[in-house]
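Hey, I'm writing a tutorial for new members on how sequence and structure tokens pair up, and I'd like a real worked example in the thread rather than a made-up one. If someone can provide the structure for the chain below, I'll link this post from the tutorial.
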Amino acid sequence: MLGLILGLLIFALPTFAQQAYVKPKLSNPDSWSFVLIPDPQTYMKFERNLGTFHTMISWIKENKDSLNTQFVLCTGDLVEQNDLLNPNGKQANQTSKQQWTSISSAFHRLNGLVPYVLATGNHDYGHVSAEYRATQYDKYFSVEQNPLNAAAIREVGPNLNGASTGVNAVYEFKTPHQQKLLVMVLEFAPRNEVVEWAKKTLDQPKYADHSVFLLTHTYLNRDSKHMPREGYKIEDANYGEALFEKLVKPSKNIRMVFSGHIGAPDNWGGHLGFREDKNAAGKSVVQMAFNAQAMGGGWHGNGGDGWLRYLEFLPDGKTVKVKTFSPLFAISPATRHLAFERSATQEFEFKL
């Protein structure tokens, strides 16, 4: 009899866990949120993984009203190879053109529904990974394609080809709490010219009462330290250490920095970074690295198990709650109990 009871309990435990699943929602109905998408490159390089990324985009569309989503940020490495014609079928089975077409068609599903700001990563430059500065980003993304982006953009920074693009840009949003917010996106390891432009832009009196969220691809490492110079061939590059000293620390209104880039096969610890420092105004700057591309099977796996984050900003104007969630796991009752990462590094809150 005891064995029968134990057997029934073991059989029932997954059911109890599944019943405990609660659909993502705001903790306060007057909060607002934004969605942070980690590096999508592994979703793009294998055709079999494209559906998972579209599931993530569909989830954003379906929940934008219930989560009061104001915008979407993506940490870069939009593709695996910027300009490679013949992938070998192991590293990737999609050409660069197919990868760029796939990532742009996915994000374009948000056009007219929610603004999105996309960083460019090392894989978005050069032949395979930042051998030189050229990127195909401008061929597949323009600010005008999303009318909500076009309405929000305020500044455009220097690009190598002289064109006006969203590679280095500033977007302005007014939150539902009537707070003035800028999202500044900077290219991978931004050039000195770009850093100087960013400083001068944020020093303008018209932005003195704005809070700034900075989005760039490479900033924190897995030890939550500012990234030192890496071994890419490009020169005139500012990685995390230099960017903090030249831009973030001297600023008076940068309050948050978001980046991706880092990872380790099926190891969350290698994908995450978090720290706080003071800026020149004595204000705390929250800095967060979030990636997931090697979860779900490593570098050649399923792209990252569908993981993303949504950050809830409470009406007090200070409290921010972070949730790490997978729309992929949330689809099926058999896997919903896995849809939230509950560890202290994945679900937490902080004060601005």
